[in-house]
Specification:
alpha+beta; 4-stranded antiparallel sheet; 3-stranded antiparallel sheet; globular; 291 residues
């Protein structure tokens, strides 16, 4: 199937991310849903870049009112500034949505195409959970009156994403990569600003991200057969390395594109989901499809 038309007017098709896509060159070759109305996908990579700009740095106003139930305050500003790896999560989720057809909610699933490195779209051990927990903390720390059903579903779908990524990481082999963060995030430990990163590292000096090299690193860790670490000569201290390696130490076997697609399509489909980025509805209108 090459395209689908939803009754709401969205015409969906599969697009291949270019080498200059806003998620980074390692995402090149992976698919995204193309939607001229920017409801269930993006009209083009410029629209994707605009969405990422709303995520990193996050805009507190996006949490005000509606289902999110937050009100403008210093508490909200502080809570939003404490979120981590949100843009990285969004980019990984965009690929997942395209491959699974938003877990079967739309009649269109895209091929993984010519992409050669599954690690390009899999966040490193623990980072998906950090992205999810710091997102959830916004509603608690800012004392938001979020719709409880909406919030529970939102966190559940994020946790399902994390489970799927962890399942793929559990079959890592030597030389495999994982996403330690987009170029806009990994230098700051996933925070939107260096100030937030410095404050975090002052209190959490053993956090693996606090030893990230300032040059010669593209945001991808490499599995050496025991743990994920910085590539080449950009190696952190042994204590820092244990943080990442401890999450998946002892696992073997090859990570293949088919494994990514399998977990995205079948394991992730145990809970139907709409796009985490907020442009897809939880229940979709009637659809018609063409091939």
């Amino acid at each position: 199937m090459s395209n689908a038309t939803l009754s709401g007017g969205s015409q969906l098709s599969c697009a291949v991310l270019s080498a200059s896509n806003p998620c980074g060159p390692a995402f090149a070759g992976w698919p995204m849903l193309k939607d001229s109305l920017n409801q269930y996908g993006f009209s083009d990579e410029a629209a994707l870049a605009a969405a990422l700009a709303q995520v990193a740095p996050a805009n507190a106003s996006n949490f005000v009112g509606n289902e999110r139930g937050c009100t403008p305050s210093q508490l909200l500003d502080s809570a939003v500034a404490s979120m981590r790896y949100q843009a990285s999560f969004l980019c990984a989720d965009i690929v997942r949505n395209a491959i699974t057809g938003i877990n079967g909610l739309i009649p269109l699933k895209c091929s993984s195409g010519q992409a050669s490195d599954p690690g390009a779209v899999i966040m490193c051990p623990g980072l998906c959970q950090v992205a999810t927990s710091t997102y959830q903390n916004v509603f608690t720390n800012a004392k938001c009156a979020a719709n409880p059903t909406w919030l529970a579903q939102k966190i559940s779908t994020r946790n399902t994403d994390c489970d799927s990524m962890d399942a793929v990481l559990a079959t890592s082999s030597a030389g495999q990569h994982c996403l330690f963060g987009l170029a806009s995030e990994f230098p700051n430990c996933g925070f939107a600003t260096k100030v937030a990163r410095d404050s975090h590292c002052l209190a959490n000096s053993n956090d693996f991200c606090c030893s990230a090299p300032t040059s010669g690193f593209d945001g991808y860790l490499v599995y050496d057969g025991k743990q994920y670490g910085y590539p080449g000569s950009a190696t952190p201290s042994s204590n820092s390395g244990a943080v990442i390696g401890g999450a998946i130490g002892g696992v073997i076997a090859a990570v293949l594109i088919a494994v990514v697609v399998w977990y995205f399509c079948f394991r992730g489909a145990t809970k139907q989901r709409a796009s985490e980025s907020g442009f897809a509805a939880t229940s979709l209108p009637g659809t018609s499809a063409s091939s």
